[in-house]
Structures are given as structure tokens and as C-alpha cells.
Amino acid sequence: MIFDIFNDVKELNLKAINKCYSIRFVHAVLPFDKITITVNQTKSEMVIYINTPERLKTSEQAQTILANSLIQWLDKIARNTYPTIIKNFAQKHQLTNPPHFRTTIATTKWGSYKSDGTISISLWLLFYSREALNHVIVHELCHTRCMDHGTGFKALLNQMCPETPFIKKELNTPLSENLVKLFQINKGR
Ligand SMILES: [Zn+2]
């Protein structure tokens, strides 16, 4: 699905980590199928270097390359931030800090916990509030003590990080249309 990237995507607002990056496209001498992303933290600006920025208007292939590069970038951020949040909540609530961590690109199943000690959290939660991300993380951490969603689990979660109406509503709200297009989420991601 071709869409107007230049007009529809002006910034990436990573609410969960309180960072909002404006986006600038710059022509660079790069192989046709390569995109380089750099981020200026001081200016809160993301610069996307691409051989022919204009091509992003007309080429689905170019948009796919961009989507993949951006997902790699998001994944790195999630892998750099989520484990610390997980560790801190585990300590705070005296729950087990799972030995294995994975990011996922799931858009409705925000997190999961497997009895082998793997906690998985969706990288798309970066676009949601910190409260929502925290809630998903504490939910999965509670599974280290209680695998099902029974009354014991609910009491535990409620005590540690209650699901407020705000969080519930947010987690039931799909990613914005523009993000779905930018990241090509409808393409079976
Ligand atoms: Zn659960």
C-alpha cells in the first residue's frame, strides 16, 4: 500500500519512553536497497538517509525497506529499555526477574510469559503510555508466580499494578492508521 510518507509521517512519538523524534529525509549516495537511520538525541531528530527519497512516494519496495529499517531501530530501543523496567518491577514487587527476554511485533497480544522463564513484550508498546507498558510488564511478571488468570492472579496484579480504565482503553486502541501504514503492519506482521 503506497501512502504519502512525507506528509503523513512527520514524527515518531515513543510515548512510553517520553521521546518524540521529528523525521527528516536526506538524499545520500547509498545502494538502492539501503536506508541508514541516525538519531540526534539533542535535537530529537531522526534523519533517514536514502538514495532517492522521492522513490518513497512511488515504490512499495522502498517503503518496505524503510519499514524494516525502522522496526530494527525500534527493536533496539525496546531491547535497551524493557529489560531494565522488567528488572525494576521484579525487584519492587519481589517477583522473579525472568532469565529470558524477547521483543515481539505482536499488535494485540502485548506480552506473554512462558514457564521456561521467557518474558516477551511487544515493541509497539513504545507508542503507548508508560503506564500501559508498565502494566503489561507487571502482568507478565505476575505470571512468574501464577500461570493462569484466576482470582489469585487477579488479586496479585491488582495489588501491584491495577488496570485503570485509562490503561484498559489504551491497550484496546489499535496503533494509528499512519503507523500501520508506515510499518506495514497489515502485511501479516
Ligand atoms: Zn496473562
Walk me through this protein's architecture.
With 189 residues, the chain is an alpha/beta fold. It has one domain: Zincin-like (2-Layer Sandwich), CATH 3.30.2010. The chain contains seven helices and seven strands. It has helices at residues 5-8, 55-58, 60-92, 130-142, 151-160, 165-171, 177-182; strands at residues 11-14, 19-27, 35-40, 45-50, 100-104, 111-114, 118-122. The strands form two sheets. The protein has a four-stranded mixed sheet, covered by helices on one side. A three-stranded mixed sheet has the order 5-7-6, with helices on one face. The longest helix has 33 residues, at 60-92. The protein is elongated, with a radius of gyration of 18 Å. The mean pLDDT is 93. It binds zinc ion. Zinc ion (ZN) is lined by residues 139, 143, 149.
